[in-house]
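Researcher: We're reviewing a set of sequences before deciding which ones to prioritize for further study. For each one, I'd like a predicted 3D structure that I can look through quickly. This is Epoxide hydrolase 4. If possible, include the structure in token form so it fits the rest of the review sheet.
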Amino acid sequence: MARVLHNLLLFVTRLALRIRLVGYWSLVYGYCALCAAVALLKLWWSVVLRPTATFQWVVRETPPACLNDTSLGTHCYVRIKESGLRFHYVAAGERGKPLMLFLHGFPEFWFSWRYQLREFKSEFRVVAVDMRGYGESDLPLSTENYSFDYLVTDVKDIVEYLGYNRCCLVGHDWGGTIAWLFAIHYPEMVTKLIVLNCPHPSVFTDYALRHPSQLLKSSHFFFFQLPRFPELMLSINDFKALKALFTSRNTGIGRKGRWLTAEDLEAYLYALSQPGALTGALNYYRNVFSSLPLNHKYVRSPVLLLWGERDAFLEQEMAEACRLYIRNHFRLNIISGASHWLQQDQPDIVNTLMWTFLKEGEGRKSYRN
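Model: Here's the predicted structure for Epoxide hydrolase 4, in token form for your review sheet.
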């Protein structure tokens, strides 16, 4: 009898797991279909209003002068032996000083950290990387090359190539996700973790599944699962959707912050208009549903989480919930009036809060190898 009950319980458990999986993937694909239908309506309306301009966009061939501003640092390249990929990064500050490594988000590149490169180079060796698929770094086209394992290993390889065995790690948006994961898997390599507008991956998963409002704000996750169509929608009308991400009233840099200059915006369009650039950026999303939930969740480094109050994509309630997964000092700062693009929107406030956090505890000496 005991064995029969055991087998029955095992069967019920497996059945419940399969039902959950079917429900999960039904949600994913169903929402993908819905987002595709909405996008098709937008495309049709754009063709009606601008029949000649809709399918026109310009590949920027010459980088704007701001990308060669020597005050930001030196452009460098590294080819990682294990992966074979070449990474581009901009570095400033003296070699041998503590390493501060910056990881950008979507749809950005190293340039999003320009205010922090200038600010922290006096005390750190600051390095802002073009992550795989972005900017001047290599661009694998297969979605399998953008799994969490590969992205986390990229960070480890870059830190070691730079001659360090640990760093202060700073990430925003998708760079924040990779920073969380890196701190989880390589706690000995992260002296302090600073994340901007990105919840712990487990918090995001749990919260989004329980809050339809966040699921709606994350609709781009589902739309980007489609092949080729998202690239088209981001390109039409000369990358109008990308421009709106940074400049519109709803999603762009906040009115209290620093607006992007025309040259800054052209820097983004230069990077993202290159052949294959949008596919590389979107491939981060195309692997995300098969990578969650996480097997390991806890962060053992001190964490600073900075959050823009006016983030159009992520609900603020997730920020405090991150505390559940941190086994060390946790500091959360909500910045009033700031948008999702926090380090560009309110750089002075961000830099001040980062300095305060960096000086806590053991101070700067703790960063040296």
